Amino acid sequence: MSPTPNDATGAADDEAPQTAPAPVDDKTLSITVGAFVVFIATWIGSKMAGTALPSAGFGGTDLRLAQIVLVLVAGVAAVLLGRSLKSIPRSVFLVITVFYFAFAALAAVFTGQFTSVEVESRFFAIVRLVHFIADLIYPLIVAQVLAVTVSRVGAALGGTDVDADSAGTDTGRLEQRAARSGRAAAIVLFAVVAVIIVVWILRQPITAEPLLSQSGDVIGAVAAALGSVAAVYALRAVAVARSLPAEQPAVGRDLSRTRPHLAHTLTFLTIAAGLYLCRQYAITSVDFGAGLGGGYPFGPVGLLVFTIGSFGLAVITFDAVTQRRKAPADPK
After folding, report:
1. Which of 14, 259, 281, 287 is 20 to 30 A removed from 316 (C-alpha atoms)?
2. Residues 9, 5: Cα–Cα separation, whole Å
3. Are the beta carbons of 178 and 321 closer than 8 angstroms?
4. Which residues contact 211 (CB under 8 A, 6 or more apart)?
5. Residue 184 near residue 322 (C-beta atoms within 8 A)
6. φ and ψ at 53, to 5 degrees?
7. Most confident region among 6-20, 200-214, 296-310 by mean pLDDT
C-alpha cells in the first residue's frame, strides 16, 4: 500500500529537524573545552616565542621553529572548536582559521628573516600590521564560536516515550550537575576578577616602582586564561538550567528566558577580552617594550570588558543554577 500524501508529508516533517546541528552532549563539550585549552596554551606560547626571538641570539633558529610548530598545533585545536557548527558557518570558520594560521606561520618565518639581517621594508611593515589586526579580530571569532556551540543543549526530558518517573530522575540529575558546574564556574569567575584587579593595582607605579613586575604579568595571563575557560562552563550551566522545566509566572513574562541571551553576550565578551588580556600579559612578561608596542594602550579597555563580563556572567550563572526550578504540574 502506497503512502498517502498526508503520510508522506508527515514523514518529511519528521525528518526536517535532523538538518539542524545536533545538541552538544557532554563528550562533545569535553572535546571542545580540551581543544580550547590547547588553543590558548599554544597560541599564547607562539606569541611569547615570537616576542623572545629578537633577543634569542644563537638560539633564535630553534625558537623560531618552536613558534611555527605552536602555530600549527593552535590551528588544529582551533579547527576542533568549530566542528559542531552548522555546515556553512563551519566552512566559513574553517577557511578563516586556515588563512589566519597560515599567515601567522608565514609571518613567523618572514619576521625571523628580516630581523636577523635588521632590514626594515614596506612589505615587512604590512605583514606586521595585518598580523596585528588579525590577532585582534580572530579571538572575537573564537569567542562567538564557543558561545554558539556550548549554549546548544537538547531537550531535558528526551522524547515523548519517556515515562514520568524516568523523566523526573533525568531532570534531577541534570539539575544537580548543572548546579555543581555552574557554582564552580561562578566561583572561579569571581576569583579571577579579584586576581585581575589586584594584579592591576600592584602593577601601578604607586611607589618608586610597581610591587609586581613580570610575576604580575604571568599571574594576570593565567587568570585571564582560567576566566575564559570558566566562562565556557558558566554558559553551559545557564543553558542547561534554562532547558529544564520550570513554573511559569502567573503574571508577566518569565525573566529567566532572557538569561541565556545575556549570558551568551557576557560569555562572548569574557572570552574575547580574556584572550586579549592573556596575550598582552604573556607578551609583556617576556618583553615589556614589546607589550607596549603590541597594543598595550588597549589594555585598560580589555581589562574593563573582561572584569564586567566575568562578574556579570558569574552573577547570572549563580542565579540560574541556585534558583529553585519546578516541573509544571500535570493538569488533572
Report:
1. 281
2. 6
3. yes
4. 202, 203
5. no
6. -60, -45
7. 296-310
Statement to judge: residues 179 and 117 lie in one domain: no
Contact 244, 156 (CB under 8 A): yes
Q: How much helix, strand and coil, in percent to the nearest 5, is found in the chain?
A: 80, 0, 20
Give the tens place of pLDDT for each residue, 127-180.
778 888 888 899 999 999 999 998 877 554 344 444 444 445 556 676 777 788
Residue 203 included in any domain = yes
Rounded to 5 degrees, what are φ and ψ at 249? -65, 145
Helix axes 214-243 and 259-286, enclosed angle (nearest 10): 160
Regarding whether 126 and 218 lie in a shared domain, the answer is: no
Q: In the structure grid, which three cell numbers stand for residue 117, read together?
A: 639581517
Q: In the numeric block, which cell numbers belong to residue 99?
A: 588563512
CA atoms within 13 A on the CB side of 174: 26
CA distance 156 to 244: 6
Q: How many residues belong to the chain? A: 332
249: amino acid identity, one letter: P
Q: What are the CA-CA distances from residue 27 to residues 31, 71, 136, 228 (Å)?
A: 6, 26, 30, 20
**Residue 141 sits in which domain range?**
25-150
Single pTM value for the model: 0.79
Q: Does 234 share its domain with 178?
A: yes
Furthest CA-CA distance within the chain: 91
Contact in structure between 146 and 264 (CB atoms under 8 Å): no
Number of domains in the chain: 2
Flag whether 51 is in a domain.
yes
- Compute the distance between CA of residue 285 and CA of residue 283 in angstroms, rounded to an integer: 5
Question: To 10 degrees, what angle do helices 26-52 and 122-150 make?
Answer: 160
The answer to whether 235 and 313 are in contact (CB under 8 A) is: yes
